[in-house]
Design a protein that fits this description.
By secondary structure, this protein is an alpha/beta fold. Helix content is about 40%, strand content about 20%. It contains 12 helices and 14 strands. Helix 1 links the parallel strand 1 (about 1-5) and strand 2 (about 25-30). Helix 1 (about 10-20) packs across helix 9 and helix 5 packs parallel to helix 7 (about 155-175). The radius of gyration is 19 Å and the shape is globular. Bound molecules: NADPH dihydro-nicotinamide-adenine-dinucleotide phosphate.
C-alpha cells in the first residue's frame, strides 16, 4: 500500500514514516525543502527508505502543492502545521497555514480517487479549551470541542489554529463525503529522530537548561511512539472513526520537575513556580477510545527519560544542567 505523510520531517511525522516503512508501506512524504539535509537525512537513513520512501516538495499555502504527493495514495496522514508559541503575526504564521493548509491538503485528497481515509493530526488543543472548568474530577473526552472565542480571549493562537483547522476539516470531509479520523494528542515527548529541536521537546529541554522557574501550567503528556502508532492504527482499523484523544497522564510542570529530579538527582532544576497563583489544576482525559486502537500508553516517567536521553545525545542540553 502507498500512503502520504505531509510534513514528513517533523517530530511526530518522522516516527510515523519510520513505523510505516517498518510495516512495509511505500511512503510519499512531503517536505518544504527537500534539499536541506537537516530535514531529510534522518528520513533517508530509515530502514526501507531506499526502496520505499519518496520525498515531495510541498508548501501548505500553495494551492495544489500536495497533488503529486497525494495522487495514487490509499491513505493520507496530514501532520504538517506550524507549532510555535512565539509569533508576531498569528494569522499569517499559524492560522492561515493550519486552516488554509489543511483545506489545501484535503482538496488534493478529494481529487485523488485512490484515497480511502485521511488521518488528520489535530490536537488536544482543539478539544479541551471550551471554557468549561478543568479540575481533577473532570474527564475530558472526544465530545469536547474547543471554542474559538475562548482561544481568542486568552490569545492562545496556536490553540486557535488547531481548533479552526479541525473544525474546517470536519466540515469539508462531511461536504465531500470522505472518511476522516483525527488524532488529538496532548504534549508529545519521547525520542527525537530529527536533528532539530521541536516545540514540545523544548518544554522539557528548557527545564534542564537553566530555567529559574517552571510554568504554572498543567498539560497532558504522551509518548511520540504511541502517537505515531495511533495514527497508523487509525488508518488500518476499518471501524476507527471520529476523534482520538491521546494522553497518558495530565501533570503540572511541578510534577514534571519532580519526575526529572528522581531520574537525575544531580540535575539543575527550577524549584519555583513562574507565578504566585495557585497551581493550575490537573484534570483527566478519557483513555477509552485510544484503547480501541490498541494503545497501551508508555508511562510518563519513561517518556520523560527517553526525551532527556535523546536531548542529551543531540546536544540540546547544555553543561549548566549538571547531569
Ligand atoms: P514539528 O515542528 O516537528 O513539525 C511540524 C511540521 O509541519 C514540519 O514538518 C514543518 O515543516 C511542517 N510545516 C509547518 N509549516 C509548514 C508550511 N507552511 N508548509 C509546509 N509544511 C509546514 O512539530 P510536531 O511534529 O510536534 O507537530 C506535527 C503535528 O502535530 C502538527 O500538526 C501539530 O499541531 C500536531 N501536534 C503536536 C503536538 C506536540 O506536542 N508535538 C501535540 C498535538 C498536536 P518543516 O520541517 O519544513 O518546518
Amino acid at each position: 500500500k502507498t500512503v502520504c505523510v505531509t510534513g514528513g520531517s517533523g517530530f511526530i511525522a518522522s516516527w510515523i514514516v519510520k513505523f510505516l516503512l517498518q510495516r512495509g508501506y511505500t511512503v510519499k512524504a512531503s517536505v518544504r525543502d527537500p534539499n536541506n539535509p537537516k530535514k531529510t537525512d534522518h528520513l533517508l537513513k530509515l530502514d526501507g527508505a531506499k526502496e520505499r520512501l519518496h520525498l515531495f516538495k510541498a508548501e501548505l499555502l500553495e494551492d495544489g502543492s500536495f497533488d503529486a504527493a497525494i495522487d495514487g495514495c490509499d491513505g493520507v496522514f496530514h501532520t504538517a502545521s506550524p507549532f510555535y508559541h512565539a509569533v508576531n503575526d498569528p494569522q499569517a504564521e499559524l492560522i492561515d497555514p493550519a486552516v488554509k493548509g489543511t483545506l489545501n491538503v484535503l482538496g488534493s485528497c478529494s481529487k485523488a480517487s485512490s484515497v480511502k481515509r485521511v488521518v488528520l493530526t489535530s490536537s488536544i488543543a482543539a478539544v479541551a479549551y471550551n471554557g468549561k472548568p478543568r479540575t481533577p474530577e473532570v474527564v475530558v473526552d472526544d465530545t469536547w470541542f474547543s471554542d474559538p472565542d475562548v482561544c481568542k480571549a486568552s490569545k492562545m493562537w496556536y490553540v486557535l489554529s488547531k481548533t479552526l483547522a479541525e473544525d474546517a476539516a470536519w466540515k469539508f470531509a462531511k461536504e465531500k463525503g470522505f472518511d476522516m479520523v483525527t488524532i488529538n494528542p496532548a504534549m508529545v515527548i519521547g525520542p527525537l529522530l530529527q536533528p532539530v529541536l521541536n516545540t514540545s521537546a523544548e518544554a522539557i529541554a528548557n527545564l534542564l537548561n537553566g530555567a529559574q522557574t517552571y510554568p504554572n501550567a498543567s498539560f497532558g503528556w504522551v509518548n511520540v511512539k504511541d502517537v505515531a502508532n495511533a495514527h497508523i492504527q487509525a488508518f488500518e482499523i476499518p471501524s476507527a472513526n471520529g476523534r482520538y484523544c491521546l494522553v497518558e497522564r495530565v501533570a503540572h510542570f511541578s510534577q514534571v520537575v519532580e519526575i526529572l529530579r528522581k531520574l537525575y538527582p544531580s540535575a539543575q532544576l527550577p524549584d519555583k513556580c513562574a507565578d504566585d497563583k495557585p497551581f493550575v489544576p490537573i484534570y483527566q482525559v478519557s483513555k477509552e477510545k485510544a484503547k480501541s486502537l490498541g494503545i497501551d500508553y508508555i508511562p510518563i516517567e519513561e517518556s520523560i527519560k527517553e526525551t532527556v536521553e535523546s536531548l542529551k545525545e543531540k546536544n540540546f542540553i547544555g553543561a549548566s544542567s549538571n547531569m
